[in-house]
Amino acid sequence: MAPTLCYWNSRGLGQPIRLLLEFTGTEFEDRKLTMEGAPTYDKSCWTDIKDKLGLDFPNLPYFLDGNIKITQSNAILRHIARKNGLCGESVEEKARVDMMADCAMDLRNTIVRLVYNPDYDNLLPPYIERLPSILEPFSKFLAANPWFVGQKVTFVDFPMYELLDQLRNMIPGCLKNYPNLIKFLDRFEKLPKIAAYMKSSRYMAAPINNKHAKFGGK
């Protein structure tokens, strides 16, 4: 039986997992939940079922893989990556992969705090001002490597692709001073299985965020 990924009907935390599953050639059910009823948005499509799924820590996304039931996006990514040799090879590489996974989540949190804030329009300009200080360490870490932890793809390249793509959609031109990050995005999109996925009907280009977000909710 194919595994099941369940998340909101948006890219968000689910998209890096979808990309990784497609890259690894894993057939899966992509279950999407939709909130209805603006402006409060009813979440009963999730709250009505979350305690009936046998999840130790009910949350979205969740991933069902045989007898394995996982929540937390990084745990899901690591599980898929371990099965496909995408966690790094040496002890040093694995340490750098783990570090990058947490740094990617820190980056995501800066974006989420902005786009779901009712004061988004006023908070965006100062976020843009400090964005170089956020992006610079990622550019330096990538350096001249094709992938974030060296010469081979690891699972951290998937959330990093998604986050950098979200940023360039939200703030056009924000990567212009980081040509290696732009080349990384282009290189990622040219991976054969990723390119095929992005051309398929399965690929979700939008919405980036959930309906109540101030950016990317449509």
Give structural notes.
The chain is of the alpha+beta class. It contains 8 helices and 4 strands; from the N terminus they run E-H-E-H-E-E-H-H-H-H-H-H. The protein has a 4-stranded mixed beta sheet with strand order 2-1-3-4, with helices on one face.
Per-chain topology:
Elements: E1 4-8, H1 14-23, E2 29-33, H2 44-47, E3 62-65, E4 68-71, H3 73-83, H4 91-115, H5 120-142, H6 157-170, H7 179-189, H8 192-198
Parallel strand pairs: 1-2
Antiparallel strand pairs: 1-3, 3-4
Helix pairs in contact: 1-3, 1-6, 4-6, 6-7
Q: Which overall shape is indicated by the principal axes computed on the Cα atoms?
A: globular
What letter string, H or E per element, gives the SSE order? EHEHEEHHHHHH
Strand order of the largest sheet: 2-1-3-4
- The unreliable regions are none
| Percent of residues in β-strands | 5-15%
What is the residue-averaged pLDDT? 96
End-to-end separation in angstroms reads 33 Å
Helix proportion range: 40-55%
The secondary structure category is alpha+beta
SS summary, helix count: 8
| Main pleated sheet | 4 strands, mixed
Give me the count of strands. Answer: 4
Cα-atom radius of gyration: 17 Å
In short:
The chain is α+β, with helices and mostly antiparallel strands and 218 residues long. It has helices spanning 14-23, 44-47, 73-83, 91-115, 120-142, 157-170, 179-189, 192-198; strands at 4-8, 29-33, 62-65, 68-71. Strand 3 and strand 4 (68-71) form a beta hairpin.
